[in-house]
Automatic annotation (TrEMBL):
Native species: Parnassius apollo
Family annotation (PROSITE patterns): 2FE2S_FER_1, 2FE2S_FER_2, 4FE4S_FER_1
The protein's name in its UniProt record: Succinate dehydrogenase [ubiquinone] iron-sulfur subunit, mitochondrial
The reaction(s) this protein catalyses: a quinone + succinate = fumarate + a quinol
The keyword Iron belongs to this UniProt entry's keyword annotation: yes
Homology family: Belongs to the succinate dehydrogenase/fumarate reductase iron-sulfur protein family.
Pathway assignment: Carbohydrate metabolism; tricarboxylic acid cycle; fumarate from succinate (eukaryal route): step 1/1
One GO process term, biological-process aspect: tricarboxylic acid cycle
Domain of life where this protein originates: Eukaryota
Cellular localization per UniProt: Mitochondrion inner membrane
GO cellular component, one term: mitochondrial inner membrane
Domain 2Fe-2S ferredoxin-type: 46-128
Cofactor(s) needed by this chain: [2Fe-2S] cluster; [4Fe-4S] cluster; [3Fe-4S] cluster
Length: 293
C-alpha cells in the first residue's frame, strides 16, 4: 500500500511537516571548490613613441585576495606591475571609463565579475588606436557623438536659469532606455559596420543619443536633426547585426533605437506631438514668484 493511501482507499494529503521531511531527504551536491588562482593574459603596449612591439604578458593573480570585479583584479595587477595602464573612475558603471575586451567580449571592468575560467584574456576594446596598454584613443568616437548635437535646441526659450520646460510623464517615458547610456563605446567597438565604415558611420552609441534628442518633446530642431542624418553612411550603414545590444553593459538596446530612428529619417514615421506645451510653465505666470512660494 502506498504511504499516501489509508485503509478506506481515500487519498491522504501529506502534512506540511511531512512535505518538508521529504524535501529535506534530497541530497545536496556540494559545490566544487574552484582554485582562486587565475592566469591573466594582458595586452601590453608601451605607447606609440616607443619602438617596442605589442605583446601579451601573463600575470598569476589570487582573486581571493581582491574584490570580485575585473577592475579589482586589474588594480591587483597594477600593484604587481606599476607600469600597467588603464582608465577607471567611478567603480559603479556610470562613467564608462573602464571599458575593456574580456574573453572576447566588451564590458565595463568595474561591474563585471571575474570569470571562473582558469585563463582570462584582457585586451583593449577593438577598432581603436591603442595609446598604451588598455587605454585607447576615444577622440574619433566623441567627435561622432558631438556631431549629433547632444543638447536641447529651442527656437522659443525663456530666460536662462529662471524656468523649466514642461514634459508629460508619457513623453518622458519615451526616453527610458536611451539616456542611461554612459558612452563607454562597448557597443560601437563591437559593431562590424563601425569597424568597416568608422569614418562615416556614427555608430550605435551616437545614433542612440541622436534618437533620444529627436524624440524629446521639448526639442524644436527635429527636422534639422533628421536632415543631418539623411546620408548613406551616418545611420543607414547599420545592418542590424545587433552586436551592440549584446555587448551593452547597461542592458540597453541601441539596435531598436536605430531602427526607430531610420523610420523617422526616411519619413515612414513622424515625431508625436507633445502632450504638454513645453512653455506651459512660462506662459502661466511669473516663474520667479512660483519658486518663492
Amino acid at each position: 500500500m502506498s504511504r499516501y493511501m489509508v485503509s478506506n482507499s481515500r487519498p491522504f494529503v501529506p502534512s506540511f511537516i511531512d512535505s518538508c521531511r521529504l524535501f529535506s531527504e534530497k541530497k545536496v551536491t556540494p559545490q566544487k571548490q574552484i582554485d582562486p588562482r587565475r592566469v591573466f593574459k594582458v595586452y601590453r603596449f608601451p605607447g606609440i613613441l616607443s619602438k617596442e612591439q605589442p605583446k601579451i604578458q601573463t600575470f598569476e593573480v589570487d582573486v581571493s585576495t581582491c574584490g570580485k570585479m575585473v577592475l579589482d583584479a586589474m588594480i591587483k595587477i597594477k600593484d604587481m606591475d606599476p607600469t600597467f595602464t588603464f582608465r577607471r573612475s567611478c567603480r559603479e558603471g556610470i562613467c564608462g571609463s573602464c571599458a575593456v575586451n574580456l574573453q572576447g567580449r566588451n564590458c565595463l571592468a568595474c561591474i563585471t565579475q571575474i570569470p571562473q575560467s582558469k585563463t582570462i584574456s584582457l585586451y583593449p576594446i577593438p577598432h581603436m588606436y591603442v595609446m598604451r596598454d588598455l587605454v585607447v584613443d576615444m577622440e574619433h568616437f566623441f567627435k561622432g557623438y558631438a556631431s549629433i548635437r547632444p543638447y536641447l535646441v529651442r527656437k522659443t526659450q525663456g530666460p536662462l536659469g529662471q524656468m523649466q520646460y514642461a514634459q508629460s510623464i508619457k513623453d518622458s517615458l519615451k526616453m527610458n532606455g536611451l539616456y542611461e547610456c554612459v558612452l563607454c563605446s562597448c557597443c560601437a567597438t563591437a559593431c562590424p559596420s563601425y569597424w568597416w565604415n568608422g569614418r562615416r558611420f556614427l555608430g550605435p552609441a551616437s545614433l542612440l543619443h541622436a534618437y533620444r534628442w529627436v524624440i524629446d518633446s521639448r526639442d524644436e530642431d527635429t527636422e534639422q536633426r533628421l536632415q543631418d542624418l539623411r546620408d548613406d553612411f551616418k545611420a543607414f550603414r547599420c545592418h542590424t547585426i545587433m552586436n551592440c545590444s549584446l555587448d551593452c553593459p547597461k542592458g540597453l538596446h541601441p539596435a531598436e533605437a536605430i531602427a526607430k530612428l531610420k523610420l523617422l529619417i526616411s519619413g515612414m514615421d513622424k515625431k508625436p506631438t507633445p502632450e504638454i506645451d513645453p512653455m506651459k510653465l512660462v506662459s502661466s505666470g511669473d516663474w520667479e514668484k512660483k519658486c518663492v512660494k
